[in-house]
């Protein structure tokens, strides 16, 4: 099933599948968020923004409005 990265809970893991915004796509791919790459949610700030993810071998902090453009296959 596909979910937005921004909707995943702390500790969730998945595989990046696609993006739904071409402008955000370029920026996110430059940061290592590439389709086919494994991603896991490492931490979520108390009010839900930002979120820390593990991707491409490092920890990355994303705003929720950036993470909502990343579609992840979970399970």
From TrEMBL:
This is Ferrous iron transport protein A. It holds the Pfam family FeoA. PANTHER family: FE(2+) TRANSPORT PROTEIN A (PTHR42954). It comes from Taibaiella chishuiensis. Coiled coil: none annotated. GO terms for molecular function: transition metal ion binding. InterPro entries: Fe-transptr_FeoA-like (IPR007167), FeoA (IPR052713), FeoA_core_dom (IPR038157), Transcriptional_repressor_C (IPR008988). Residues 3-74 form the Ferrous iron transporter FeoA-like domain.
